[in-house]
Amino acid sequence: MEAKTKDLWVFVETNEDGTAKNVGIELLTPGKMMAGKQGGALVAVVIGNNVDEAVKAASEHGADKVIVVDGPEYAHYTTDAYAIALCALVEKYGPTSMLIGATNNGRDLGPRVSCRLHTGLTADCTALDIDEESGNVAWTRPAFGGNLMATILCPDHRPQIGTVRPGVFKKSDAGEAKAEVIKEDIHVDAKDIRTQVLELIKEADGENVDLEGADIIVSGGRGVGGPEGFEPVKALADALGGVVGASRAAVDAGWIAHAHQVGQTGKTVGPKLYIACGISGAIQHVAGMSGSDCIVAINKDPEAPIFDIADYGVVGNLFEVLPVLTEEIKKARA
Predict the structure, then answer these.
(1) List of residues 6+ apart from 199 with CB closer than 8 A
(2) Which one of 11, 53, 67, 259 counts the least CB within 10 Å of its CB?
(3) CB 107 within 8 A of CB 72
(4) 8 Å CB contact between 107 and 162
(5) Nearest Cα residue to 311 out of 325, 324, 329, 292
(6) Could you report the per-residue pLDDT of 177-206, keeping only the tens digit for each?
């Protein structure tokens, strides 16, 4: 299809309580820059049930307009209902590009929408810009197992669509809610929704893990040696008021749930403080946490690649270092 406007859209995914997920608000930051370069407006698209809080958040974080689709059929994410609603909006308004968070739902919705609209999709992006020569979106994503970065253009079809990893961009500071709110009445017949949510079961041990939203993450890798090795990691995270992360090696070994995984095949995070314990620093892990404000590495191997990106490094046995560090933090906070 042809673009009707130069607007850039950000799909703001919602939680079941109607609030906005972090990634949608994060994407308004690069979206503002890109919309300016395209010469269009930054438009947030909110689909869900009782989503007033999400609309407010989008408006406070820089959206020029917010398009809202609100209804009970959107209370739980389903591919059919959300794809029908989003495609109807795109066909009506004709944006030139659209950003979707690479969450489980976003990775499902993006391909379905792009296929129906006969356009391209660049998945799992970690950097965004506008190509100065062509004016197209320059989508950058890891390729060949994360060993190089590919920049992809979609010159012939509109809208240009990409899914973007959570945690790559920072949320802007909230300001005054000034966005124009446009409510669209789009309802989907029950017969057109081929799946039904019967029950929500949260993963054991991963129930309360919010890596993308955490300010402090303490992660364990192969060096923790086993499930019990995460005990001092968790103790330090608790003392700091942070959450526990993990490398793929630790998750693949079955030592901790996948919900804790940081890296190319896990979560991309950008906390204020990231402490890597017994993590060598493989490029696939670094791709998921290199945007942290401060990185502290604890490893027995002084040649471990993790020290190349760390702001502070401790060469030592994590089982000796972490208990001492935890006790000192507890004393300082007492």
Answers:
(1) none
(2) 53
(3) no
(4) no
(5) 292
(6) 889 999 999 999 989 999 888 887 765 555
Dihedral sign (CA 210, 265, 309, 146) = negative
Domain ranges of the chain: 8-192, 216-333
CATH of domain 8-192: 3.40.50.620
Distance in angstroms (rounded) separating the CA atoms of residues 113 and 16: 22
Reported as type and span, the H/E element at residue 139 is strand 137-143
Tell me the per-residue pLDDT of 209-241, one tens digit each, with 9 for 90 and over.
Answer: 888 888 999 999 999 999 999 999 999 999 999
Tell me the fold of 216-333.
Answer: Rossmann fold (3.40.50)
- Of all residues in the chain, what percent carry a pLDDT higher than 70? 97
Residue corresponding to tokens 């391209």? 120
Tell me the CA distances in angstroms from 82 to 67, 78, 115, 293, 305, one per residue in order.
14, 6, 14, 35, 43
Q: Round to whole Å and give the CA distance between 90 and 15.
A: 22
